[in-house]
Amino acid sequence: MSRFEINEAFCLDGQPVKLLSGAVHYFRLMPEYWEDCLYNLKAMGFNTVETYIPWNIHEPEEGVFDFSGSRDVAAFVRLAGALGLHVILRPSPFICAEWELGGLPAWLLRYPDMKVRTNTPLFLEKVEAYYRELFRYIADLQITRGGPVIMMQVENEYGSFGNDKEYLRQIKSLMERFGAEVPFFTSDGAWDAALESGSLIEDGVLATANFGSRSDENMDVLEAFFKRHGRKWPLMCMEFWDGWFNRWREKIITRDAEDLAMEVRQLLERASINLYMFQGGTNFGFYNGCSARGYTDLPQITSYNYDAILTEWGQPTEKFYQVREVIRELFPEIPTGEPRVHERAAYGKAEMTGKVSLFSCLDDLAECQRSAYPMTMEEAGNGYGYMLYRTPVKGYNRKMKVKAVQASDRVQYYLNGVFEGTQCQNNSGEELELFFGPENRLDLLVENMGRVNYGYKLQAPTQRKGIRTGVMVDIHFESGWEQYALPLDNVEQVDFEKEWIQDTPAFYRYEFQVDQPKDTFLNCRELGKGVAFINGFNLGRYWSEGPVQYLYIPAPLLREGKNQLVVFETEGKTAGALWLEECPVYVEYE
User: Fold this and answer.
1) Chain segment 266-283, per-residue pLDDT in tens
2) What is the arrangement of strands in the sheet containing 369-371, beginning at the earlier edge strand?
3) CB within 10 Å: which end of the chain, N or C, has fewer?
4) Domain 373-479: which topology?
């Protein structure tokens, strides 16, 4: 068996080794594309791949586990090993990663006393149950057992959240109990307070730093931190940010390739590196995360392109070639190669073949749940997607004020099937003045636009989605509610023979032909806001607000012959045809 140790240098079988790593999230790529991505990582001259393990995709419901398909982390790790790559695993309960709730499962929020990332019995009990199952898949992949995994992370940027060392020790202890044998590490921001709060250096756990510039300055901070604690350890940037993530209604963030190469060169002269990201991939489904700025939540977009070394769809960028050149110059003994690329195609027009209002097919998609006052999305369902709230309201042929109290994240009001207004978190709770006849039906469609993935708001009540308090008409809370949880994981049950109602949330079905499956892009310019499905697979959210107006469709999701595209459009916009194009579509922002 090989041996990996952390001494004054990283050592593999007693010989010093510099870790040249790139971040690849198996869960953001099609499994069919894992090999090409890992091949390209090695072609750039790198010897290691790093990946997070998000708890929420592996335990989507408490006690229900899934390690199949794109969730098959063991298959991804074995493939990396077969290609000659080392693997750094980050199975911490929290991952950030611009992922929904930082990887924590939404069902945790059903517990009113839950305090995530704390040394509390309730949270640790849930982590223990998860680790018991997870390590059945990953324990035998460690280098101590003949596998490629050389290190595991205890917690992720904990110094930006808390400083409870006993919590960190409990997580480390659980990992050891279920079979972790390789060296542990923590990763935090490169400043003293974060390193001190988030590390377990006193317990012999390697501390690493995360940053994307000023390499010497940040390594000086880490080196001084080691010295204060009497450690002579190798320096490593566990997340060297080669790009950045993007949010709705904001300009795409990019980074110059030459600048990146210069910084990488500077860092590699004294430290090991993990480029974050090598390939970003896609937030398929409802798994995009959300930033928090003060009291405002800023959901992130479906694309996790990240301006990374490879594009969202796996195309090598100029950064690939610039970084490869740095490797060739600094480490001429390391073999490099030419990258693989994926073919793309424009399939042209997708013709509409059916449409139906959500109000007409609610019972096809969800069970009606009745309660005196509104239930949260976590109480009524799995906590993702949408929730439709409905109640009868007695009126007096006059206007009355209506408001949803503590609603997250985006609320659309309909009175007797007619659209009356939209509110988001920044104006949620403001009153709408609506005219009520004698008998009325009030509908509220609430969208979970993504839970916060970083910072104090992980503990905030706003991470419970839907309507948390109630809906007021006049000056009283309305009682007697029906609600429909809509994770939209069953769109094949939509009955397009039912009624379509103009200006209501609706499903639209399109069809197009494919002779040979290749990567393509759905042009979303004609649409408003919603989510799209290709052959039943949830591609993620689109929004006319930009900065992107496309959804990436990987070739493995297509079929030869007829393909079906279903769009759930919430803004009442209709398009008689949609287009499948060879290139992505963007919105320009100043």
Assistant:
1) 999 999 999 999 999 999
2) 369-371, 481-486, 386-394, 439-447, 410-415, 418-423
3) C
4) Jelly Rolls (2.60.120)
